[in-house]
What does this fold into?
Amino acid sequence: MRLPLLPILFFSASFLPSNSLAQIKPASTAASAAEQYVNAHKSELTTGFDHLLAMPNVAADPAGLRANAQYLLAALQKRGASAQLLTLPGAPAVVYGEIRTPGATHTIVFYAHYDGQPVTPSEWTTLPFTPTLKTIDGQERIFARSAGDDKAAIFAQLSALDALRAAGIAPKANLRFVWEGEEEAGSPHLEQILMQHRDLVHGDIWLICDGPVDQSGQQTVVFGARGDTGLEITVYGPQHGLHSGHYGNWAPNPAMMLAQLLAGMEDSNGHALIPHFYDGIAPLSELEKQAIAEAPDNEAMLRKKFWLGRTDGNGAHLLNLLNLPSLNINGIASAQVGARATNVIPASAIADLDLRLVVGEDWRAQQQKVVDYIESQGYFVTDHEPTRAERTAHARVAWVVRNQNSYNAVRTPMDLPMAQEVIAAVKAARGKVVLLPTMGGSVPLGAMERAARTRTITVPIANFDDNQHTANENLRLQNLWNGIGTMAALETMP
Amino acid sequence: MRLPLLPILFFSASFLPSNSLAQIKPASTAASAAEQYVNAHKSELTTGFDHLLAMPNVAADPAGLRANAQYLLAALQKRGASAQLLTLPGAPAVVYGEIRTPGATHTIVFYAHYDGQPVTPSEWTTLPFTPTLKTIDGQERIFARSAGDDKAAIFAQLSALDALRAAGIAPKANLRFVWEGEEEAGSPHLEQILMQHRDLVHGDIWLICDGPVDQSGQQTVVFGARGDTGLEITVYGPQHGLHSGHYGNWAPNPAMMLAQLLAGMEDSNGHALIPHFYDGIAPLSELEKQAIAEAPDNEAMLRKKFWLGRTDGNGAHLLNLLNLPSLNINGIASAQVGARATNVIPASAIADLDLRLVVGEDWRAQQQKVVDYIESQGYFVTDHEPTRAERTAHARVAWVVRNQNSYNAVRTPMDLPMAQEVIAAVKAARGKVVLLPTMGGSVPLGAMERAARTRTITVPIANFDDNQHTANENLRLQNLWNGIGTMAALETMP
It folds into this structure.
């Protein structure tokens, strides 16, 4: 999609070295300056990134998280930010910093997180906290936990400040940095911390610097995220496993009951059949539809990469399907398979469901639609492990646990002035940009927006194949270099 | 059901103590003699049974199995049998013994097995090879591995010989004992061993002394067993687990595919929908139908015991349903549930199926019906783990592993003269007897019948709630005492 370039704006002079001529440079110049800086400092940048990645940052290691926070606090202070740790007992600190620009009319908040997913070192080919450079298919990549998710974003924001200072380019807006330490644990304290510092964290826009860019490798700007909720469903057969010969055909098999219950929730193309599942969806705007139409077509590449002989959705493209709610079976289990299988009628069968939501839907209502469907199939649904009396009194019993750690979808309209500013800055830095109304994944953006009285736009920099959340996480180095340019452009937004 | 009592037959005198008057005693007298013997020797019988149970007898302990075999060989020899071990390299020995009766016109073979299921001591409340007497609901039970399955049968056969000798009652037929040491491992060498000793193991009837009596507690005689086969089905989604947000609605979910595939195999009452599933079933004879009609109605008791709010089969009784083939899901698995669940589109989903067969069906054909059904649902079916090329070339791919350790059902007609003799002997010993055309479970009776050129009838003695195959296996002691009487009656059959 094409959007008009913004008129070139001038920035206030307060941040400038006295001999700088930078005030006449346009936003794209910030990216050029970043590129020059990167080319001149690749070795020390790589060393600096390695240093950050070498600091263990998993939830099970609070001391490690504290060391990360202290390091990042000092890094912000060294770059002239007024910085502090926003704390709450029992929670990793939020690292907060502000660079005030006298005369600025806007405040831009950069969100990222410094914690990483848990690691199982035995699954890694290199040690997760020993950053290791490898060249794969001609591309240099650094392997370490959080290389992509999400220390790359933090390091890019810091390095962009250095590049701008070296080039004598000052910000035009007030810049704020909110770096969370608990994202991979589901951000259980973030909203509370933000609410306690509403004025500090407020901004005209929050830039969520997390996640991967488009699978095509092109820089991406994403305007929302799907909401997320879930259910765990357990259905019951006999009180304990029974011999499948002596009782087969007579004792109901819960694995079959579960299969039949789940099978009715979707057609064979992944379209949900649960009544009202698609009700209330806010339609995409023309601008959003146009953005999707102009996004790269990665279908064939992804099908090949994932060994897929077909996709769900009757031929619809991934980007369109991500703008619909989804019902996903995360896992199913009943008794044993493989070498441990025995000829048994299992006692129970379990399915874990993930429900993604789009704007216009409420997670509690979406859960209820699934529960209503289960009841419509003849089940007595309980919110507790059913008792003997309940199981003998009802032909079919399902225990449903509703995930309370849930939230709705959020989508920032692309035509908001602040959204147009972000698009222009990123385009100026990176040229071609993929604009997506929503990402398929979920981030609790709504909580951020409420606490900081702002809107959110996501600007990721990692490669999509960065193995985030699994072993051998890595960042393609060129994504880091590009990311420094992108962040420099955003740090000089008006 | 009522069957005419057989005329009282006299037995040959060769086995008798010289001063015995036993030759005028009817078959029921053998059971009476056994009862008197049991009442006079309960303490030493219990000690003897404990001694046998204390000998570890699991497949992982070949030395333990050898010790059991040697002990039982000596036990047979001590009772005047001509005994030997029938061996094959790598297989536990079959303990074989014969008591010849001059002038006998029939040969009766008693089959049992001395090996037990594997044990996980941590799951037991007492040690599996430390026989422990407990009184539960007023019933004395001995807890130990193989107490019910199947050393009780062996000990009853030996003790019945002692009781008969003490009462001066001799067998009328030749008696043969075939005690296997590999039943719980699926009898992989039994047929071969029997084929190498066809003349030794031949008999007019094989009495399979294994399994539990009817749930009502009444003595049971069973004339067949269902056949058994199985399939393991794996269906595929993406090559590795994918983020359910970023790819949900687009990447096919193999857990949903499996659910839909399985769901179509049966209706909601457990009736198979796979084409031709019930083809070719040999109908029950009038005598067999009558037997089922006269068997105890345990439905309500079993539903209560197993916490069942309904049963499959549209209200048909268990005993009728056991005379139909069954399709049972032994287990299903895809990714994780519970605390380990993550929001993922799994890479694959697996189901393990157990197929029970009745007379008239062939296990290879029954497997093929399921495979044909899977193909009819649009699957490309492989007999190997599918390659990348196969997975990308086909919309739906299933890997099906067909269980080759399979066999067909066997059913001995109740109106055979030898069947009538067995019914009469057991009725004379125990009074009321439950006659069942088939058991729901499976035993490779066909292999025994072919090798020994005989027919089989099953006479179990264990209580149905003996926890066979799980922890805390136990035998209700009264079942052992009754079993000694039943075996005494069978050992004096004409």
Chain B touches chain A through 85 residues (CB under 8 Å). Confidence is low (pLDDT under 50) at residues 1-27 of chain B.
